[in-house]
Amino acid sequence: MRQCQCWRAVALASSGGEHQYRNLHLQVTCFLELQQLLLLALCCLLYILSRNGWMRLKLRYAAVPAFSQIPPCPSRPPFRPTSQLPVRQESKVPVQPPTFQSEGFSAQVSELLEVITPSEASEHVAKELAAYTQTIIQEMLSGASVEGFANADVLRGTAFGVAVPEIDLVVSADPDCLEQQLQGRLSKGGIPKTRMDARKMQKSAIRACTDLLVAAGGFKFRRSAFRCEEPKVTLMGPSTMSVSGQGIPVEFSVNCATPGCHAALVAASGEIDVRSRGLILLVRRWSKDRGVCHVARGHLPPYGWTLLAIFFLQVKKLLPPMTGMKSGSDYTVQTGHMSDCQTGPSESATVGCLFSSFIGFYRQIDLRQEVVSLRRGERSCPKPQAVDDPEVLHPSVQIEDPFDPGRNFGAGLSPEGLQRLHEELVRADAILAAGEEALLSEILEPWAPPEKHATCSADAGVELAGRQSLF
User: Fold this and answer.
1) In whole angstroms, how large is the CA radius of gyration of the chain?
2) What does the pLDDT look like over 334-349, one tens digit per residue?
3) Transmembrane region positions (predicted)?
4) Domain range list for the chain
5) N or C terminus: which one in the chain shows less Cβ crowding within 10 Å?
């Protein structure tokens, strides 16, 4: 009934004017129910919003050109993998080779040894750094001790001191103590107690100690090497503990055995033949300056070069066989009988002559077919290999640790690292062919990577195959 009256009012008002239209509005409103009024208001609101949106959209695209006129986006260049080999970069302060006042190769070697041999001041700095580090570490690891080892004269500084530091700081802590102190840190990393092993514990302890040393000890972090067999970090010591006012680079590790083993071997060799210590220092300095002792690049570690130098002296009958023993943080070396050691002309040979023989010795032999063992102290037959052994195609270098015969310090030597080692031996052998006229500064000229590697080209596989066939 109300709808009929409403439509009748609409028909009457349609034939009238504005006054009648107002009356129509009032009459229609009176006849509508509340639900119908709400529906009518909603429809009006939607109409207004749609009308305004359409007008805005029309104005927005009025000044925009057609899609066909929009220039296409530039395409990205195709991805090309970069070479992992080092590439030479320009340096404002290039590293210069060392200079010597002496004439003659042997005299220059003696002059260098006087510079790089660890002095009492270097040993004192290493002990001070160890004692200072221990006071900071004990805040977190109660009962832990820190020992410092100086492998060269750190007060004179070398060009690659940060790359291969000459001071080792080793924290000795009980594994149970580490587990108790670092349990909260490991649990935050999602490592349950049942899955914690010695290596994970070692890495976590190094991270925790590094954070503490940087925050409260004035150390500066440089880089980490956690992929190595023995994880470690490189730090810059506080400048206040250096005579020159600059930080001293150190290698920091936790429960690491290599620095102690190296110190014990050098001390035992020096007691038998004082020249052995000079040869080890010279070989390590040469491997550092020529860039063949960086483990991250697939080279032998400095400790591996120490084992090679001692093994060479054993083959020349200047040192007896050696067996290492370790008990906690104590390292001792037991030597064999001296009856087979050579006496005579070799006793008068200088360290420079021994270094020339060292280069020629490893220049001639194939390290992949040798077993460098200080326990035997002599060259052995080629190492046996099974027919299905993968090392038959790509044999590795085997350098046995006298303290742990199961450890092989030549396992990390990559084919590229082996090639670089061979190239440096050939280069040094060619320079030393001049005898006493050879220049030590030329042998120790700092190595710089090439500006461009041929392995980046399409002939990378061919070149790598050629490298592996050189041995």
Assistant:
1) 38
2) 998 765 555 444 567 8
3) 24-49
4) 2-60, 111-256, 275-471
5) N
Q: How far apart are CA 348 and CA 354, in angstroms?
A: 10
Cα 328–chain centre separation? 27
Q: Which CATH number fits domain 111-256: 3.40.250.10, 3.40.630.30, 3.30.460.10, 1.10.10.1800?
A: 3.30.460.10
Which residues are CB-neighbours of 381 under 8 A, at least 6 positions away?
Answer: none
Q: How many CB atoms lie within 10 A of CB 413?
A: 25
Rounded CA gap, 50 and 62, in Å?
Answer: 18
Q: Spell out the residues 6+ positions from residue 471 whose beta carbon is closer than 8 angstroms to its own.
A: 366, 368, 418, 422
CATH of 275-471, one of 1.10.8.10, 1.10.1410.10, 2.70.98.40, 2.40.30.10: 1.10.1410.10
Nearest of 225, 247, 231, 218 to residue 154 by alpha carbon: 247
The tokens describing 342, both together, are 């050579």
- By the 8 A CB rule, do 453 and 83 touch? yes
Secondary structure (3-state) at 146 = strand
Dist. CA 321–CA 100, nearest whole Å: 36
Dump strand ranges (E) for 226-283. 232-236, 249-254
pTM, two decimal places = 0.73
Close Cβ partners of 417 (under 8 Å, ≥ 6 residues apart): 292, 297, 298, 299, 300
Residue the block writes with tokens 């031996």: 425
**Whole-number Å distance between alpha carbons of 144 and 157:** 29
